[in-house]
Amino acid sequence: MNSAYNVIIRPVVSERSFDLMSQNKYTFEVAKQAPKEEIAAAVEKLFGVHVLKVNTINVKPKTKRVRYVAGQTRSWKKAIVTVAEGDSIELFAQQSAE
Fold first, then answer.
1. Which CATH homologous superfamily contains domain 4-97?
2. Gyration radius of the chain over CA positions
3. What are the percentages of helix, strand and coil residues in the chain, rounded to 5?
C-alpha cells in the first residue's frame, strides 16, 4: 500500500460503532490486503492519535435477491482501532454530537 488514504477507505457508521466509541474504539472499512501494522500507521498519520491495538474482521458477503435473480453483497475488511486514553478522532466526534 502506498498512501494512508489507500488503506483507510471509510469510517463505519452504525449503532455498534458509536457504542464502541465510549471505549476509545473506532471502526473503519480498510483495504482487503492491508495488514494490521499498516492500518495502525495510517490511522496515526491521518488523525494524529496513538493507536494501541487493531482488530480486523473479514466481512463475508450476504446472499440477496432482486426479483428472481440471486446475487451477493460485496465482501470487505473491517478494522476496529483502539486509541490511547484521551485521544479521539474528530470525524466521529462531530457526528455523535448531533
1. RRM (RNA recognition motif) domain (3.30.70.330)
2. 15
3. 35, 35, 30
The beta-carbon contacts of 29-34 under 8 Å, at least 24 apart in sequence, are 29/76, 29/77, 29/78, 29/79, 30/56, 30/77, 30/78, 30/79, 31/1, 31/6, 31/7, 31/77, 32/58, 32/75, 32/76, 32/77, 33/1, 34/1, 34/7, 34/77, 34/79
pTM here is 0.84
Domain ranges of the chain: 4-97
Angle at 80 between CA 23 and CA 3, to 5 degrees: 130
pLDDT tens digit sequence for 46-82:
999 999 999 999 999 999 999 999 999 999 999 999 9
